[in-house]
Design brief:
The chain has about 750 residues and is mainly β. It has 2 domains: about 1-95, Sandwich (Immunoglobulin-like); about 120-125 and about 130-745, Beta Barrel (Maltoporin, Chain A), CATH 2.40.170.20. The protein has a 22-stranded antiparallel β-barrel. Strands 8-13-14-11-12 form a 5-stranded mixed β-sheet. Strands 3-2-5-6 form a 4-stranded antiparallel β-sheet, with no helix packed on it. The two termini are about 50 Å apart. Residues about 5-15 and about 375-395 have low confidence and may be disordered.
Length: about 750
């Protein structure tokens, strides 16, 4: 044991004091003038610096190979690889670009800029999603082309990527796989956007990188970064939402020294029932509390970070239009959910390679409280003027026992070794796994007590040629499910991926990706036997279900110059043994009985658009995108919950003045077309248009930055029903006009 500790300490301490200095200068390509205050960032080490007034910088690094990313507003981001030690003085030239600065993509294994990536990945800053007036993270991601959300009011939303959702879309947060009983239609993300910096979306099978449940894609949430070395900062923000009379607040602090760094952030959100043009939707109110904390350490050849997130949400479950109120305490029925996420990410840097170890422990406790006796709906419909005493009586929850009480405990691990570069090859090998236990403590049991164990092994390479980049990989997975007092099942799958990126012409980039993915049946599909509240159906599982297995072809074309960007992304996705619910015509306890069945399915469509930055109007942006997806079973029935086609046009202006900076104004029109390609048990949806406007700016107050923003969504108070709303079968409208005012103050 002592010998083992000695070896580990030796690895950690090697080269810790062998520092080398590299110097460089950042210039504007066309004029060869210096660029002061450009950002120099080392993504693997999560550290960096900025250039001085002469455009020069200096870094202290130990021996090894490093990726350096250089960026500045108004210029195209550059990345380069540097071997240390070196006697060369780096000269980095940036060319002007009207497009936004690029960020390193974290969700793909080689951590490249999107322009260098073989796989097409969408990335958005959370601050931009919030500036559009989104109430929640689930609503914000719908501004990304190809991404939608299955919603239950405002509080519950599940991501939909190109028509696939639920367990077919994997969510990662703090670098670990999020497990929060996402099998249920009425189960949301359980993640608050406070303390999240950006979101990345992989559209299509990502089982090679993430295993089962990444058949449809990945939603990857990047937590906020620690403070730069020897810096500290604090900020607080508040947002008010006129429609729900709601608010969200958060405050955080972070600091960093030479080696250690830490941060923490807390938030509180409350909303009353959302309003439509005709009524408030009863019991869509909710309250959410969130706390995030992180501790990190960085040396020359080792970095580690520990993060923790606690999220408590009390969510009303709407059952119809009843009491009209602006109270914020949920009525019966409601959910009370506690979600704990512990994560550890560590990297050992060797001279030309590195080892990444990520560990996670998640504890999810979901409770649902229900009424023992329901009132007659006719007595409650559109009741107005109910006094506070009635509502308080209706909300006496303290002595209630949870009808449904499920606890899910998950431990997962991800170990990857980045091999030394071999000529044109970058290669990663790794193992991933998960151990999960589901337990029931309530009177109702939707899914049985069970234990699930996953194990996967993978290898992937990125090959650089002069005119083309190739990425390929293979993976094997094994999943074992043991259901208490019932049966055991095991599933396995081989999967692979092959991608190409090349420049067809000087300004046109083409990406072609072919990938397989799989999803093992979840516990609900295998062993359900009960009524799902909120869905009003009795579900019966099928222990004979097989893996879902898919193959997708994805073609992405992109034209980009200094003032215009055009893109076209098309996909064809074949899913074998697609699992779906089908009614058998029977009823249990007055609820229709649904059985889980399988049939092959096909999805196809794409996203198309442009981003125009006209010359010489450098402050103006015109963005337009169209998205479409069609899904069908082999018997020609359409798949349920397929988003309607939509077209989004945004006119945006960005500029600075003497007293204010980052002034931005936008006007957006989102046109959603009629959805007539529906499943047998769905109804069609009408077309509608939603108009939004907003503005924001940053200025100095007491020598510190204050950002103020205001936006209005559904400005004309349009009455509409979104096709993916779970309230649609009852004809309940989505939210009407909402004005959001936000203030953030940095200390």
């Amino acid at each position: 044991m002592n010998r083992f500790l000695f070896i580990v300490l030796g690895i950690l301490c090697t080269n810790i004091y062998a520092q080398n200095t590299i110097d460089g200068k950042v210039l504007e390509q066309s004029t060869q003038t210096a660029i002061p205050y450009a950002t120099i960032y080392l993504p693997e080490q999560e550290t960096g610096t900025i250039t001085d007034v002469n455009g020069e910088f200096s870094l202290q690094l130990s021996k090894g190979t490093y990726k350096i990313v250089v960026s500045f507003i108004g210029f195209q981001t550059q990345s380069l690889t540097v071997s240390v030690p070196t006697e060369d003085h780096l000269t980095i030239e940036l060319s002007k670009s009207a497009m936004e600065m690029e960020e390193v993509i974290v969700s793909t294994p080689f951590h490249k800029l999107q322009s260098e990536n073989v796989m097409k990945v969408e990335q958005k800053k959370i601050r931009d999603l919030k500036a559009s007036g989104a109430l929640t993270l689930a609503e914000g991601i719908t501004t990304i082309a190809g991404v939608e959300s299955v919603s239950t009011g405002n509080s519950i939303g599940k991501p939909v990527i190109r028509g696939l959702s639920s367990n077919r879309v994997l969510v990662y947060t703090q670098g670990v796989r999020l497990e929060n009983q996402q099998f249920g239609d009425e189960h949301g993300l359980g993640i608050n956007d406070a303390g999240i910096e950006s979101v990345e979306v992989i559209k299509g099978p990502a089982s090679l990188l993430y295993g089962s449940d990444a058949l449809g894609g990945v939603l990857y949430l990047n937590p906020e970064r620690f403070a730069n070395r020897d810096e500290s900062s604090a900020d607080a923000s508040v947002n008010y939402f006129s429609n729900t009379k709601g608010y969200s607040t958060n405050a955080g602090y972070k600091a960093s020294s030479k080696g250690f760094k830490f941060l923490f952030r807390g938030s509180l959100t409350e909303h009353s029932d959302y309003d439509t043009k005709q009524y408030r939707v009863t019991n869509t109110r909710y309250r959410e509390q969130d706390f995030k904390a992180g501790l990190g350490y960085l040396s020359s050849n080792f970095k580690t970070e520990l993060r923790y997130n606690l999220n408590n949400a009390k969510l009303g479950l709407p059952e119809g239009i009843g009491i009209q109120s602006t109270a914020k305490t949920p009525m019966l029925p409601f959910q009370n959910i506690d979600n704990h996420i512990f994560s550890s990410k560590s990297t050992l840097f060797f001279e030309n390679s590195s080892l990444d170890v990520t560990l996670g422990y998640l504890y999810n406790n979901r409770k649902e409280f229900e009424e023992e006796h329901h009132h007659d709906e006719d007595e409650e419909e559109h009741e107005e003027g109910h006094d506070e005493e009635h509502e308080e009586d209706h909300n006496e929850h303290e002595e209630l026992e949870a009808a449904l009480n499920m606890k899910l405990k998950t431990f997962n691990y991800d170990v990857k070794y980045n091999l030394p570069a071999l000529g044109r090859f970058e290669t990663i090998v790794g193992v991933q796994g998960m151990s999960q236990m589901n337990s029931n403590y309530g009177e109702e049991i939707l899914i049985p007590d069970a234990t699930t164990n996953d194990f996967g092994v993978l290898a992937t390479s990125h090959i650089h040629f002069e005119t083309i980049d190739v990425q390929l990989g293979a993976r094997y997975d094994l999943r074992a499910i043991a259901i208490e007092n019932s049966f055991d099942k095991s599933f396995n799958s081989f999967n692979g991926a092959l991608g190409f990126k090349t420049h067809l012409f000087e300004k046109i980039t083409a990406r072609l990706n072919l990938a397989t993915g799989f999803r093992a049946p979840n516990l609900a599909e295998l062993a359900s036997d009960g009524t799902h509240e909120g869905t009003n159906r009795y579900e019966i599982g099928n222990e004979n279900l097989a893996n879902e297995q898919n193959f997708q072809v994805d073609l992405a074309l992109e034209y980009k110059n200094e003032h215009i960007e055009l893109f076209a992304n098309a996909f064809y996705n074949k899913v074998n043994d697609y699992i779906f619910l089908n009614p058998n015509g029977e009823f249990i306890d007055e609820d229709p009985v649904f059985l889980y069945e399988q049939q092959n399915a096909t999805l196809y469509g794409g996203e198309f658009g442009l981003h125009l930055h006209p010359h010489p109007i450098h402050w103006l942006h015109l963005e337009s995108s169209f998205e479409s997806v069609t899904g069908q079973l082999d018997n020609d029935d359409y798949l349920p919950l397929i988003p309607a086609n939509s077209l989004t046009n945004t006119l945006r202006a960005e500029f600075n003045s003497k007293s204010m900076k980052n002034i931005n104004v936008f006007i957006k029109l989102r046109s959603t077309f009629a959805q007539n390609k529906v499943n047998t048990f769905e109804t069609t949806s009408d077309a509608y248009n939603l108009f939004s406007i907003g503005a924001g700016s940053t200025f100095k107050i007491f020598k510190n930055d204050m950002n103020v923003s205001i936006s209005a969504t559904n400005l004309f108070d349009t009455a509409y029903v979104h096709h993916l709303s779970r309230l649609k079968p009852d004809g309940i409208l989505n939210m009407g006009r909402n004005v959001t005012v936000g203030v953030t103050y940095a200390l």
